[in-house]
Amino acid sequence: MIRDFPNLQSFLSSRSQNRYPAVIPVSHLPSLYPPYEYDHPNYGLTICQEPQYSLSQLGKCLILYGMKFELQPQSSYNLTRCALIFNQFPLDGTDVWIPARETLPAQYHRLYVVENELILGMVQQNHDSRLIVHTYPPRPKNHAYLRSMVSWQFHLDAPLQAFYQRAMKHPFYQPILKTLYGVKPLLTPTLYEMAIIAITEQQISYPVAVKMRSRLIEALGRKMVFEGKTYRAFPTPQAIAECRVNDLRAFSFSGRKAEYIIDFSRKIADGSFNLEDLRDRPNEEVITALTSLRGFGRWSAEYFLTRGLGRSDIFAADDLGVQRLVGKHLGPGHRVTAQECRKILDEWDNCQRWAVFYLLCASRLGLI
């Protein structure tokens, strides 16, 4: 039995005489996480922001303190669809997608390291498409930096509407957008994470690379336990820089790839290479800078540009899977070369990344 109480005091009075589960309507309590009434499966849950009341005073009820901030996507974004779809993909443990169920909305959780502070971000979407981000701890010291990081990660200014306008008239994309409209991949919170992802995914299958990377994250990433669940952050450059080749080989990386990862991490840790300098540089300059480092070829650099820097006018043309899918569905019906692939996607101009993403997404979900 769930009973409503008009305020916290009436709940406390009733609690001394009764043992039934109780929920206080969130409309009476500002700035809450979660922003909806929540029935705990064991004994009910009271949500409040009254620090003067202790857990012992409230009995078996959970008190959640928290702050939130809001972000407004500039193009269509559907977190519910993203959670449902990306939860079916291989995940390395840093991105936690929670699909919607019954009355509970979809959520995205991520543990961030912000200026050495661990902050758990919990993201939902309200009815007017705004993203609502709650944090733990409730009042992080680096709140402004976190807001900037999450805003970047969700790529709020992605030019998806231009792609949708063209894709809805395209015979291949029109039917798959009925399922994938509003789905958008996340950028990585840091450029370092994307660089390591690019190195780890070279020349091996995506699921295998994700599995190896998850071992790296589990062993070297900092962790936080919140509401019984363990969250892990992506390892810092310093953490990996201290490793030896054999340490990474224990996670199934080859000796050469382990060398690349450690060598690159040491360059970032000691400041001899600054990834932040690449943010505003043209594509070809970024490619030149990255390919000057051990472990980076053109494929890795183009992958970094799309998923790390969010560039939409480029894609990893040397990717064999991309060549196969582009050739089969947008070209002559068979795998094409990197040069042919670029020529076929030339018509998409500043939307090339999106043309490739929706193609790959539709393939992975069995829509084509």
- For this structure, what is the CATH class of the largest domain? Mainly Alpha
Radius of gyration: 23 Å
- How many DSSP E strands? 9
The pLDDT mean sits at: 85
Structural class: alpha+beta
| Overall shape | globular
Distance between the termini: 47 Å
N-to-C series of helices and strands: EHEHEHEEEEHHHHHEEHHHHHHHH
Strand arrangement within the widest β-sheet reads 3-7-6-5-4
CATH superfamily of the largest domain: Hypothetical protein, domain 2
Query: CATH topology of the largest domain, which one?
Result: Endonuclease III, domain 1
The biggest beta sheet, please? 5 strands, antiparallel
Beta-strand portion reads: 5-15%
The tally of helices reads: 16
Number of domains: 4
| Parts with pLDDT < 50 across at least 5 consecutive residues | 1-9, 14-65
Known CATH architecture of the largest domain: Orthogonal Bundle
